[in-house]
Structure formats: C-alpha cells, structure tokens
Amino acid sequence: MTPDLPRTLQEPTTQVGKADYLRIATEEAWCPPEMFDIYKRILDEGSIDDPGFMTMFGFYLNSGSTRARQIRDYITDLGAQRIAHMDERGIDKQVLFLTSPGVQVMPTAEAVAFAADANDQLAAGCARYPNRLAGLIAVAPQDPAAAAKEIDRGINKLGLHGVVINSHTFGEYLDDQKFWPILEAAEACDTPIYLHPQVPHKAMIEPFLDRGLDGAIYGFGVETGLHMLRIMVSGALDRFPRLQFVVGHLGEALPFWMYRLDYMHRAGVVSKRYAGMPPTERKLSDYLRQNIYVTTSGMAWGPAIKFCQEVLGEDRVMYAMDYPYQHGAEEVVATDNLDISQAAKKKLFQTNAERVFKLT
Amino acid sequence: MTPDLPRTLQEPTTQVGKADYLRIATEEAWCPPEMFDIYKRILDEGSIDDPGFMTMFGFYLNSGSTRARQIRDYITDLGAQRIAHMDERGIDKQVLFLTSPGVQVMPTAEAVAFAADANDQLAAGCARYPNRLAGLIAVAPQDPAAAAKEIDRGINKLGLHGVVINSHTFGEYLDDQKFWPILEAAEACDTPIYLHPQVPHKAMIEPFLDRGLDGAIYGFGVETGLHMLRIMVSGALDRFPRLQFVVGHLGEALPFWMYRLDYMHRAGVVSKRYAGMPPTERKLSDYLRQNIYVTTSGMAWGPAIKFCQEVLGEDRVMYAMDYPYQHGAEEVVATDNLDISQAAKKKLFQTNAERVFKLT
Fold first, then answer.
1. ipTM of the predicted structure?
2. Do B274 and A211 touch (CB under 8 A)?
3. Cross-strand partners of A195
4. Given this model, what pLDDT does residue A226 score?
C-alpha cells in the first residue's frame, strides 16, 4: 500500500476470475526507453513550441511521484513484467502501441526513422508472445507518403493490426487533405486507425492548463473529439467510406453529443456559414455508427458503457484498460460484472476486437 | 415549408397534446433590439479581440438565411408572438434570460448599466405574463461588486428567479477569486447560477473555427464544460457549498465523463503536479450530483436524458427547449413520449424547475 496512490493505481488486491470469453484490452501503451531519451532532448533543447508536451513530459520524465515512476517502469517493458501484469489482471491479450504523442513531436526525418524502428521492435516483441500481444503501427504524419508506405509495410510485412495516430501533429489535423494518403493507405489495407489522444495544441490549451485540465481529465478528450469531428465534417469519410476509426474513452463523449451534432451540423451546412463545413453524404451520427468503434479505456463505468452500446450498437464498443496509465484489477471485475447479456459481454471483451483488428 | 430549413427549425406541424404536468422550459432566450445595436457597434469598431463573437454575430446580425432572420425576429419579442409560439408548442412557462454573450462583451460601465436596464425590461415583460414567463438576472462579471448588488436587486426588488452567466468574460472564468463576490451573492440569495455557453475564447477557438465547430455543435459545450470544471477543481464549491449551478445541454457532457473526472482528478491532486489543482473536500462527481442541475436544451434525445437521470438522479434534470435557437414541436412530443415513469416526467418538465427557480 503506497498511501499517495489513488486506489486504482495500486497493485491488484482484487481477484479477477475466469470468464467464458477472452479479455482483449485494446488501448495499451508501450514506449521504448530511447523514445524517452529523445523526449528529454526535445525538452532540453526547447525545440518545439508545445506547452502541453512540455508540461506532460516535464512531469512524467522527471517526477518522483509513485504514479510517474510506476508508469516509466511498466511502459518500457515488452516482456515478462507486462505479461505478469496481464496475468494478474486477467487480460488475455493486449492490443498495444507506441505511447502518445509517439513520433509526432519529432523532426520529420527522425520521426519517420523512429516509427519504423519502433514498429520493428514492437513486431518482434509481439512475435515472442503471439497469443498475448498484438501491435498497431506507429506512423509519422509529418511525411504522409512515408506514413502510407509504413502502413503497408506494417500490415503486409510486420503482421501488425492497425494504425495509431495521436491526434494533432504540430497543430495539424487529418482532415487536411495533405494527410489523406494516410487515410487512403489504411482503407486500402482494410485496417483501422486508432485516433488516440494527445495534449491539446498550443492554439487551444491555455484555458485548460493552469487548472490541470489539459490531460486525461478533460483536455485529451476535447482534443481528440474535436479531431474526429473535423474529419467527419470535412467529408473525408465520404471519400474513404470503408475506413474505420477507433476512438478511446468511449468515443471521447461524441456518442453523448450525437443528437446535437446532427442537429447543429445540419443547421450549419444549410446556413452556408462556413466554407470548411460543406454538405456531407451522411449525417454525423451515421459516421459515428458506421465508421467509428469506441473503446472503454479509462471509462470502466457501466452507465456510460451501456449508453454507448445502446446508441452505437453492441458491435461498436470494445474493452480497453489503458495500461499502464490505468490498470486496476477492480476495473476488470466491474466490467466483467456489467448487467448485460453474456453475448454482449463476449462482443465487448473479445469478438469485436478480433474482428476489427483481425486478431484470429 | 422553407426548403433550406432543417426539419426542426420549421413551424410546428406536429400537434403537442395535453399533459398532466406543466411544461416549463428553462433555457429560453431573449434579446432587446438595442443589444443588437450595441453588438453592431462592437463589430463595426472591432473594439474587442474575440474571433468567436465576430464570426457568430457577424453571421446572426447580417445573414439573410432563414435561420438567422427567424432568430432575430423571434428573440426580440417579449410579448404576444412569444406567447403564441409557446402555445403552439405546448410550453406553459418559459424561464428566460438575456441571450449569450449578454453584456459580457461590453465595456465595464456600459455592461453594468445595460444589465440593469435589461433586468428592468425583463421583469416588466414577465409581469405582463406572470403565469407564462419567469426571468433570470443578467450581470456584468466585469464589475464583480456591481454584479453582486444586481443579484440582490434582481431577487429582492425585481422578483427574478436566478442568475445567468455566459461562460467566460474576456477569457476569464468564475474560478478566479476576484469573481467570488458573485458566487457569494448567489449563495446568500439562495438562487442558482445558470452557466450558459458562449463562444470559446480566442485562447482556444482556433482549431474549432475553420471547420465550423466553434458554436453550438461543439465549441459551446467545450467552453462551458471547461468553465464548470475549473470552478469545481478550484475549490469554489467548498467555499460556497450551498451554491447551485444549472448547466444546459445535459451538463455539457460532464455527466458522461463523471467516472474519468473522478479518477484523473484524484491522480492529479495526489501527484501535486498543478498548483491550480488543490485537494478538494469532495469528489468531482459529488459536486456534479450535489451542486449542479442540468437541462435538456438542444438534447431532446431519450438515451442521453435517461443517462443523466440515472447518474445524477431524477431531481437534477430539467426540461429546456432553447427557444428560439431550437423550437421544434416534435422535440416536445419526443420528450413527452420518453419511456420513464409519470412521476419522473413531472419532475423533468415541472417540479424540479419550480423548486430550483422558486417559481411557485
């Protein structure tokens, strides 16, 4: 018992029982130690103008708090310790990827090279535990053509299972058509893009920062929800109608907003007020229900999980833990104990993830 | 039938039936024509650096679109036309207030004077229809002492029923202790503060703006949710524990985030990462359940309304229409037809509002 830890950051005291489904956790994080070295260099140089990155990694790389030390330890392991933690928490398989913001804060050439190297490492790590680990592909949106090639290599050469993009790249979003080769490659490879949070860009972070609201408590959700909305509103999903996104934290609250999104999108399009809000082929709720999967990362809470199952459909909601940022065994038990049908539970924990990430 | 209107902006074609409860709509808007004149002057002068205000009122004041013309017409009426629209839509009573951003974009002296004048006008308008209209008090946070006095005058002299504040005032939020005389006055008068949206401040609006996401579709919710969170995290509700806020649009999605808010707030406080995130006496979910009421404005959608009733309690959710920004009769019918108990429906439409705003 470490007294300065919230209950859910402690080691498991709760016993996770057997289940008649596999527990596949779909938003799990990994970081090679050398990426922390690069982040340290970026912090020391002050070479990027990104107050969110500065405060977050200023904290995680340097803090002596139990939370920061534990995350630094757990996240860099791709072997026995990770598997032991999975065993203790009843997790059969992790879908894992390079932690946020990944290479998206690096200079372009370094980002492209580091993504490829990280993907090689991750594929090798997964090959050591083929039944326990499945990786997603890190890419450098800074070079869209290289990113598209890396997606193809990751799927067809490395045997990885999807793409991860950590929201904005130096304040730019995927609705910008210069990034569409990335969307095109993912659609062509029939593989999903996990749109993972990162800290809000400097153009919006200021009112979050002094009250500590820039990170996982709120800013991550706003940044990522805004990014997904920008993509939907832009018409990108009309151009790439088969493309699937995965959005954590139960869709960053977009399912809750679904009715108002449709209403105000329609009003905005009709009014012709914004050049950047053209008519789209489908309603925003259609994109949410047809092009987006959500995961339960950080949201091990029955009412919100069941709400998403109700409004998106049981096939669109997948379990995630958010290891090692959040890894309480009692959250696994709470999800096990949801008052939903066994069939719905198996979809939530196992079969949706198997289908979306082609795990079997 | 005007072809360029979304269905829900048309005149009622749906028949709203009788109900065995009063329908009280609690987030309804009004604007004296002379406030539009002041906004025109501010736009013409370019005297404030507020891109959100510029785009929004650049549109609403000048657009020839049916939506803009209709809103300009409906919102300025405080008499027979408003009552006729209420009758057509089955609304028994409006709780209404000066539309956003109210006086919060005016120079201080003008803001203080205009708020008082608007409150006089609104009180007189309500006196003409005592069973149909109940007003809230506009204040100028620019002068907190004057705002506190106006709250006292509004409650004790004018017979108004609460206070409205339209989120930020020139980028400043109510968690700043210089504004706490306003919170103190509201608590002392035992009257709620409606924390109403306005356009995000320039320090965060940029990534919303070019895709038309700055307004009611998303930016309003983020701005106002962030503001309410800042107040909760600051400890203001420990200093003013009896103070009640009302937050529209089903709490700007904060109820959906409740689990994650608690988890990450605890982690943030324990880590001591932010000077602006001190320990608080209660969990964020406690503030949500004990100091905040939510209304259904713009969210006439069963799944989200029932979710909020489930996680906040039936006593914490109130009906609102958002007239004239949203005024579809079919939304009233949809709310009438919610599959909840008659007792819960009466709380939603009538008795919660009567209690919170002291309407009887």
1. 0.96
2. yes
3. A165, A247
4. 98
